[in-house]
Specification:
Blueprint (H helix, E strand, L loop, with lengths): L3 H21 L4 H14 L7 H26 L5 H22 L4 H20 L13 H18 L4 H10 L4 H26 L10 E2 L2 E2 H22 L4 H24 L2
Antiparallel strand pairs: 1-2
């Protein structure tokens, strides 16, 4: 059972994750996953399925967070719905398949994947690799392929896809504010299909803590959901006020910090 202190930690995490979800279009999973892992381990809950519970819970929270974020961005007219239509169906398929496969992947392997992936994307964003001026978004087949890969990876690390879809769109010369807003819209189908997959793959798993629905830990989900929904619109408003270079640096630093935090946890186990 979680203590009041642990619930306070989750509420604070929800504030940060919700704000960052709106600010960067990342869904908040980069913050939520490591915190939920820490809370469950401190409470001695989850056993060998701590990472699966953290990722499943993160995706379930993002079902609600992404709605609040995308509505705020849509009011600014920043969402490119043609990109959403081109990438979302394959993202849903990739996320659901990946989340079903995740139950067969060891928890430590998922954590190492998260660390390596976050370092790679964070470094790329921080040093500002420039795309060719002529590069554009691919056609429907290319968007679908990218969406499928992003969805599957997202299901393994518990993110809304923004940490891959924002750099992908930026590499195709989509303006960063549009990329962030569109990524927020793409986060909802990823979250729904991913959460459904983790719920299904963990439904018959023995030894999960009371309050779990498959690999979704409901007490943590509810605490996080309340704060992320409240704070995501604030982050979206801030995103449209910040200049592009600063937004990219914030995005990169976030990923590097989260990767370092989880790496420290892996090395000190």
């Amino acid at each position: 059972m979680l203590s009041l202190t642990m619930f306070a930690v989750l509420l604070g995490c929800g504030v940060i994750a919700g704000f960052l979800a709106g600010l960067l279009g990342v869904g908040g999973g980069l913050v939520i996953v490591p915190v939920v892992v820490g809370v469950l381990e401190a409470a001695q809950l989850g056993g060998n399925h701590v990472q699966h519970l953290a990722v499943g819970t993160s995706l379930a929270v993002m079902v609600f967070t992404s709605v609040a974020s995308v509505l705020a961005h849509h009011k600014k007219g920043a969402v490119d719905w043609s990109i959403v239509r081109g990438m979302a169906p394959a993202m849903v398929a990739g996320t659901f398949i990946g989340s079903l496969l995740a139950g067969y992947i060891p928890s430590n392997a998922l954590q190492w994947f998260f660390v390596l992936y976050a370092y790679a994307i964070g470094a790329q964003m921080f040093f500002g690799a420039k795309p060719a001026a002529s590069r554009e978004l691919p056609g429907l087949a290319g968007k679908s392929a990218a969406g499928g890969v992003i969805g599957m990876v997202s299901s393994w690390v518990g993110i809304g896809g923004g940490s891959m879809s924002v750099p992908f769109m930026g590499w195709c010369n989509v303006p960063v504010h549009t990329a962030i807003a569109t990524s927020a819209a793409l986060g909802w189908p990823i979250a729904v299909s991913g959460a459904a997959g983790y719920l299904a793959s963990g439904w018959q798993v023995p030894g999960l803590p009371w309050g779990s629905a498959g690999f979704v830990y409901l007490p943590a989900m509810l605490a996080l959901m309340v704060m992320t929904v409240l704070c995501a619109p604030l982050g979206a408003r801030a995103a449209h006020a910040l200049p592009v270079p600063k937004l990219k640096k914030v995005f990169a630093v976030l990923m590097l910090v989260m990767a370092s935090e989880m790496l420290y946890g892996l090395l000190t186990k």
